[in-house]
Amino acid sequence: MTVQAKKHLGQHFLTDKNTARKIVDALEMTDGLDAVVEVGPGMGVLSDFLIERKKNTWFIDIDKESIQYLHEKYPALKDRLILHDFLALPLSNLVGDQPVAIIGNFPYNISSQILFKILDERQQVNQVVGMFQKEVAQRCIAQPGSKEYGILSVLLQAYYDMKYLFTVKAGAFNPPPKVLSGVIRLSRNHVEHLDCDEKLFKQVVKAGFNQRRKTLRNALSSLINKDRMNESRFLDLRAERLSVADFVELTNEITESRITNE
């Protein structure tokens, strides 16, 4: 039995075993981190090497054909093979409250959604090793001042240390995608909570980059009290110039101006 790659699911099955081993080897299973969830295992090319590591691993795929194939390939895994939409399944339903690592050759059409879900569950997700469209991978690790720097860069780097590991050519997949792929690792940093209103922080970051050609004075017009923030050193800059720490400081300035206004 083989699995037919489905365009509507964004499936491009990795076939190069050397690349698969490199991805799995990039997982750094530190003390206390024993649970792994593979997202979109497909035909199991990463799964082969994950199983060798003898960790507590779950495999989740929305594709019924893939899960059926994996049941035939790994009959001993049984209830570790989960037919479900990763985006709609709380990690605690799989692994309880223990810390977890996420790994996968992520479908490119939902890769940003996967990253936002990881952010939502960041208190449990200690590490991520994933393959993305190279453009998305570069966006995740981008630094202030670059054209790739954006919403994902700031939100991810607020809570994770990021590293670009290597590039994968289209020929490593079946069917080959029309783009290069990039593998990155996210390692949870020691920031439990940002030193600001985290909900407002997220609003500020999104609003700033949604109108990235405008200065923050204009891009954030619905969030700020301009009269009370005239002296802010950030408002005449564009969002791409601000670091994570700058966005935290700006968020606190906005919070303070609202309190003063009341």
Explain what the structure shows.
The structure is a single chain. This protein is an alpha/beta fold and about 260 residues long. The chain is about 35% helix and about 20% strand. The chain is built from 10 helices and 9 strands. The chain is elongated and about 65 Å long. Belongs to the class I-like SAM-binding methyltransferase superfamily. rRNA adenine N(6)-methyltransferase family. RsmA subfamily. It catalyses: adenosine(1518)/adenosine(1519) in 16S rRNA + 4 S-adenosyl-L-methionine = N(6)-dimethyladenosine(1518)/N(6)-dimethyladenosine(1519) in 16S rRNA + 4 S-adenosyl-L-homocysteine + 4 H(+).
Summarize the structure.
With 262 residues, the chain is an alpha/beta fold. The protein has helices at residues 17-25, 45-52, 64-73, 91-95, 111-120, 134-141, 151-159, 198-210, 216-219, 244-261; strands at residues 13-14, 35-39, 56-61, 81-83, 100-105, 125-133, 160-168, 173-174, 181-188. The protein folds into 2 domains: 7-188, Vaccinia Virus protein VP39 (Rossmann fold, 3-Layer(aba) Sandwich); 198-261, Helicase, Ruva Protein, domain 3 (Orthogonal Bundle).
Largest sheet: 7 strands, mixed
Gross morphology: elongated
Strand content is 15-25%
How would you spell out the order of helices and strands?
EHEHEHEHEHEHHEEEHHH
Number of strands: 9
Q: What is the second-level CATH architecture of the largest domain?
A: 3-Layer(aba) Sandwich
Specify the number of helices: 10
Query: What name does the CATH topology of the largest domain carry?
Result: Rossmann fold
C-alpha Rg (nearest Å):
20 Å
First and last CA, distance: 67 Å
Task: Tell me the helix content.
Answer: 25-40%
Which stretches are low in confidence, meaning pLDDT under 50 for 5 or more residues running? none
* Mean pLDDT across residues: 92
Count of spatially separate domains: 2
Q: What's the oligomerization state?
A: single chain
Quick one: CATH superfamily of the largest domain? Vaccinia Virus protein VP39
Strand order of the largest sheet: 4-3-2-5-6-9-7
